Each structure stands twice: as C-alpha cells, then as structure tokens.
Amino acid sequence: MREMARIDGLTDNTSKIPFPLLRTESTFSGEISFCKRNTEGKSTIVLMMASEYQLGLNPCPPYAVRIGGGKNHRMGLYDAVLIKDNHIALAGGIEKAIKKAKGMRQKAKGIEVEAKSILQVKQAIMAGADKILLDNMSIKTLRKAAKLCKKAKVWTEASGGINLKNVIKIAKTGVNAISVGALTHSAKALDISLEIV
Fold this sequence. Notes:
Elements: H1 11-14, H2 19-39, E1 47-48, H3 60-67, E2 81-83, H4 85-91, H5 94-104, E3 111-115, H6 118-127, E4 131-135, H7 139-151, E5 155-159, H8 167-171, E6 177-179, H9 182-185
Parallel strand pairs: 1-6, 2-3, 3-4, 4-5, 5-6
Helix pairs in contact: 2-3, 4-5, 5-6, 6-7
C-alpha cells in the first residue's frame, strides 16, 4: 500500500477523523484518476462534466474533473443559460426560447441550446445561440452539425450516448467539446484507509 498523505498529531485527535472524510477523499481521488486516464494524451479532446450534475451541492466532483484534465460545463445555474427540450416545448419553439432567455440573461456566459436534429441546429443558429448542445446525434449528423456551427462561429458540444469507447470517433467530427456523464457518475472510488503508525 502506497502512502499518499501523512497526518501528524495527538493519537486521540487523529483517531477521530470521521469516516465521511475518508469516503469523500476516496471518491474524489477516484474521479481525478478516472478523468486523468481518459484525457491524458488526448490533447485534441475537451472532455466536460455533464450539465445534469447537481450544481452547487458538492464542489468536489467539478474540482476533481478539472484536476484530472477535464472541464466543467458550468458551476451553477447563475453562470450559463442552458435551454433544453422541455424549455423549447414550453416556450413554443427554439426561437421563442432563445428570445426569452436573452431578455432574462444578466451575467451569464452565453446561451446554449440543446438540438436533436440538423433543423434544430439551423434554428438555433438563426436565433442567435452562442453554443449548441448536439444531443444523441449519429456520427454523420454530428459531423454535419459541427460544420454548420463552425461556419456560423457557434461553439458546439456533443452529448448523449457518449462513452469512453466512442469518444475518439466523436472528437473527429469537429465538435468543440464532448460532455461525458461517466466522468462523475461512473468513476470508481479509490481504496483509501487511515493507518496509525
């Protein structure tokens, strides 16, 4: 077993280190290692933590992803606007959803819209989206969508159905980033224990 940290102190105090702290460290270290393994040597791929992560509830996973070489989609609902399919349906279409978001936006870094087809990609571009989340698209459709967005100078992010087996193929479509939920929900915790010596 390899030593990763040493705590100096009185025996009574050291033995009171709570189990939740060790558990958090195990999970945190597992996420860093998992992300590192899947970003190392892949400088052309920008792996991002999924937007569905429970924003603001636990700062450790987003930090772990950054240390491991990935990027955070956003840190909270305050720093980006993400318009998903339900928002589009409620607003009555992509154009109306983006118009409403632009009216409400304050300090957000931009407006990102989820698109499931080339038609929706074109609508989002025409309505002035800053970013487009290309959701559950085939490799062929991703390639076409990325080309359209590049021409319009709109940032793209591939999402949905992405795993570490198909990530290289998706990266070659020309998207700017790839959202991978596995970076946090599938990372295996490292076996970390506290030993008194």
